[in-house]
Amino acid sequence: MATESPAQAVLDGGGTGWLEEFYQDLHRHPELSHQEHRTASKVAERLGEWGFEKHTGVGGTGVIGVLRNGSGPTVLLRADMDALPVREATGLPYASTATTDGDPPTPVMHACGHDVHVTCLLGAAQLLAAGAGHWSGTVIALFQPAEETADGARGMVEDGLSSLIPAPDVALAQHVLPLPAGRLATGSGPVLAAADSMRITVHGSGGHGSMPHTTIDPVVVAAMIVVRLQTVVAREVPPGEQVVLTVGSVQAGTKSNVIPDSAVIELNIRTYGEQIRTQVLDAIDRIVRAECAASRCPQEPEFEMFARFPLTENDHDVTERVTAALREHFGADQVGEMGRWSASEDFGDLPAAFDAPSTFWALGGIDQELFERAAREGRVAQDVPGNHSSKFAPVPQPTLDAGTRAMVVAALACLSAGADR
Ligand SMILES: [Zn+2]
Ligand SMILES: [Zn+2]
């Protein structure tokens, strides 16, 4: 007679009928990075009900639940809680109309699906607690603030995370992405890019627009830099490497006939390895300094790094183990290859604080019919609103169910079997 697997036994525990309503409530009440107070208190309330040891206010609004269940590995499961300053245009009955208190108020929307992550991790936490007889070890359910600003995970680490929780042997996280709802995708190695943002100030010498020979025009220097930076990826990076270098902002001057004193360029860089990242950063430094020298700038340029995301690099062994468990549970056709996404995440800062291996997988959230029609017409990029779009609208089911089950199955793949297996 076939015996039920521990994962199936835990999932059969049920009691997660509240997930969809909880999700819609979170979706209606999104909170910007570092302001996730309402979300955090809802999370903490639930964790307490299920017997988790609770830590709140970690790194601002971070919440951690620890469930010690005998000997065995310690597994950290992570969700991010923050929303984005986007005006929701999904037309959903539970769409957000939330704004900040500021003047003018900023619209707020869960446009990256972090409400899906929070709901699924809570669902998994409940099932793991209720089914504690089927596994042994320690589960840490960690809800972090401020993923979108790249400093939420680091903030928890700097606030003493390692003294609050047992060191995890493995860390797991998932992200809802524009794939068919209920489908999963995993992958070994670098799956999300490291991101660096940089602000460069070039100094010229301002004056009257009618007398350019008496000035050093920073607008021209900035323009040269912007054009020349395009050659970094095109001419210096090996063709097989994936690198993105985008100048997203150029600011200088106030009036057509005034040559300003300085110009500010902001750029964003995405890379998939430390060596290539260093090469690209060095190239930027060289080009900017050389253009300033070429234009006789009176002062060295200034460089300021901000919004730095680590590389999301999936451990080979952990990924293999989790992928095998997900395939067994969902069916091999439901668990695809993730490949590399040019998006970035700060999840990696959590396992890095413990030198623990980790894996991060993609959870599909798009209405299956919509996705398949777009795929047939070769129009997924045009017709399927992705993360950060005002029309990003993961369907609650089967997304929440799949995300909850994926967390449970992956966690159990890393924990020890329980006594009653
Ligand atoms: Zn996002
Ligand atoms: Zn996100």
Automatic annotation (TrEMBL):
Keyword set, alphabetical order: Hydrolase, Manganese, Metal-binding
Binding residue positions for Mn(2+): C112, H114, E148, H175
Class of enzymatic activity (EC top level): hydrolase
Domain Peptidase M20 dimerisation: 197-293
Pfam families attached to this UniProt entry: M20_dimer, Peptidase_M20
Enzyme Commission number, as recorded: 3.5.1.32
Cofactor: Mn(2+)
Annotated protein name in UniProt: Hippurate hydrolase
Origin species: Saccharopolyspora gloriosae
Taxon lineage: Bacteria, Bacillati, Actinomycetota, Actinomycetes, Pseudonocardiales
